[in-house]
Amino acid sequence: MSATLLSVEALRVHIPVTRGVVLRRTTGVVRAVDGVTLDVREGETLGLVGESGSGKTTLGRAIVGLVPPTAGSIRLRGVEVSTLSGRGARRARSELQMVFQDPFASLDPRWPIARSVEEPLRLHRAGDRRERRERVLELLELVGLSRRMADRYPHELSGGQRQRVGLARALALRPALVVADEAVSALDVSIQAQILNLLQRLQEELGLAYLFIAHDLAVVHQISDRIAVMYLGQIVELSPGVDLYREPMHPYTVSLLSANPVPDPSVEAARERIVLPGDPPSAAAPPPGCRFHTRCWLRERLGDPEICRTLEPLLREVGPGRSVACHFADEAAASPVTRRAVDLAGGRA
Amino acid sequence: MRQPVLSVRDLVVRFSTGRGVVHAVNGVSLDVEPGGTLGLVGESGSGKSVTSLAIMRLLPRGGRVVSGQVWFGGRDLLRLSAAEMRSVRGREIAMILQDPQSSLNPVLPVGEQIEEAIRAHERVSRPAARARAVELLGAVGIARPEEQLGRFPHQLSGGMRQRVMIAIALALRPTLLIADEPTTALDVTVQAQVLELLRDLTDEVGAAVVLISHDLGIMARMAGRIAVMYAGRVVESAPTEELFARPRHPYTVGLLRSIPRIGGARRALVPIEGSPPDLERLPEGCPFAPRCAWRIEACWTQNPSLATDDGPAHLVACHDPAEPEEVGPGRPIRPGFAPAPPPGIRAGVA
Questions:
Q1: Same domain, A253 and A186
Q2: Is A180 in the same domain as A302?
Q3: Which of A56, A163, A184, A188 to probe the B interface (max B CBs under 10 A)?
Q4: How many domains does chain A have?
Q5: Is A102 on the interface with B (CB under 8 A)?
Q6: Is A143 a residue whose pLDDT tops 50?
Q7: What is the bridge-based pairing of β-strands B37-41 and B208-213?
Q8: How far apart are CA A295 and CA A275, in angstroms?
Q9: Of B30, B59, B110, B119, which one has the greatest count of Cβ atoms within 10 A?
Q10: What distance in Å separates the CA atoms of residue A39 and residue A319, rounded to the nearest whole number?
């Protein structure tokens, strides 16, 4: 097992909700990330899945320093980065980079792409002008773009090409970890496959680690070594990718698997689906006890145990590299509902 | 096959932009069976949404139907007067879009919007329309519908708004529902609820559905028949089972190989190399040829038309369709294959 690169401990990011412009006052707080502990190892891909409002994006942004944490720690190779300032912070940040869903939004439309890719090099005063230009051309080639693209503008590029530029820019400072937030979600499937393959090749060549955030279970499965599932600001399950989809232990993971449409009509015809009632509750007022209890299909089957409504389950280790936050994880794993969801989730591959 | 409820024939739609002409739809023909669900699959720019807007005669500014027919209920919709078309829309053909926010009026309570939709087409009293609205909201699974009537769209979640849209769309029991990426903006668990609802209610009303989506998983669940679009044309059309089991068009094969799947051993994805053509400068031959590993000489010069293959229900537009043994998953397309522009055309000096 490789060494730990990044460790996040008991991280909280609470975002105040304000009202009024003149008499601005805080009316509540959204607990976007509410006690997350996880590690990313050198060279691995940790997938992070969850629905909107689960806090996965906020977690990624906190890791790269785009939002300040409320509490907890983020350490890169043992060095706390969330409280660093000055040169130390800048050096640490250069090792933590992010690519976004919409690369168009992160590229300046008035600049040729070479300038956007060069920007981080200039900010960190890397090399002289000629050396930087050479590095930019190298980076473009690395992500599969021709050198001729250097002087094009973002609007002249396709979605896939723009995402490659976003990657080149993120790689400029030779990061150790790239946080990819829904980086392939907006792309058409044929292009999405090109970018996923590119991410894998870059990982092999450069020894990068990824925190790969996405809502699509199949995409996350394709690229991740381990997968963490988030619900309302917390991690509810974390496992090696194969285990998570073969033996899910949290009822929420099971319902995600069951809801995920499978590109196989014979499976879809045979399938009974767990349909969760309602929408996810708001992270401003998470339910007491287990946050998932208001939508949990297992709770009903177990005769509505009181503990689910009163006691918040902790993420606990249940096997090598596997953790789950559910009072009834064994019951969830053994349920025929879970078996059916798993049998059908993959299609007749 | 029974008399189709909708027949599109040789539809051509173009857009004039400041710079040139976009060939958005280039001869699309489709049939939708009564009560059936036709899935329209394709990537962005494939013309699937433009086709549906042309059917509804709701093309945005700059777009026009150049030729073709849209047969519905014994009439060519493209020849109806504006007033006749208004009465078809909503009453006989309803539409649901990806973003319900854009189709709901933000300053009107949702109850009033449903009542308005009913009263626009039927002579019913206000209280009767209100009672129908309550019933409809209940039918789309909204709890305590009486209380929700007075809420404004922004007070509802995305899933709830899409339920309201479904209530409005099905209020008048249309014969055809066009749903354009109805769940793309929703979370996967909410998407499952909305798809289930859509299927149950259209079954109940007996409406046929044209479902537009880029998601092959959703298609596998919902569609009875699938038409795959590329560069403004239908390149393959077959019953859903058949399309997944025996895809024949190289583009369909490529799509199926590009999607990651859960379960089983993880395999490398085989992407479709290159990118879709520029709709302002379509090549003379097959628009997929530059990216196609099966292409032959004829592909550069002749655009193949949609013709039967493997039985009357399976249509393919390809000079040399893929053989079943070539479409096995995980198999590389053709060693050393690289996308290329047609011979004779050099990539610009740019």
A1: no
A2: no
A3: A188
A4: 2
A5: no
A6: yes
A7: parallel
A8: 10
A9: B110
A10: 16
Residues forming beta bridges with residue B153, ordered by sequence position: none
Residue pLDDT, tens place only, B243-278:
999 999 999 999 998 888 886 667 778 888 888 888
Question: Among B166, B207, B198, B165, which residue's Cα sits nearest to residue B32?
Answer: B207
State which of A165, A189, A224 marks the end of a domain: A224
Contacts of A236 (CB under 8 A, 6+ apart): A229, A230, A250, A252, A253, A292, A315, A324, A325, A326
The CATH code of the domain that includes A97 is 3.40.50.300
A158 and B157 within 8 Å at the Cβ level: the answer is no
B-contacting residues of A 151-190, CB under 8 Å?
Answer: 158-161, 188-190
Which residues of chain B are within 8 Å of residue A198 when distances are taken between CB atoms?
Answer: none
**DSSP code of residue B265:** S
User: Chain-centre distance of CA B61, in angstroms?
Assistant: 20
How much is the pTM?
Answer: 0.88
Would A229 be classed as within a structural domain?
no
Model confidence over A330-347: pLDDT tens digits?
A: 999 999 999 888 887 764
pLDDT at B331: 46
Q: What is the pLDDT of residues A168-187, one digit of tens each?
A: 999 999 999 999 999 998 88
Domain boundaries, position A194: 4-224
Are residue A53 and residue A162 in the same domain, yes or no?
Answer: yes
Helix A189-206 to helix B250-258 angle (10° resolution) is 50
End-to-end CA distance of chain A: give it in Å, rounded: 29
Give the dihedral of Cα atoms B325, B326, B332, B336; nearest 10 deg.
140
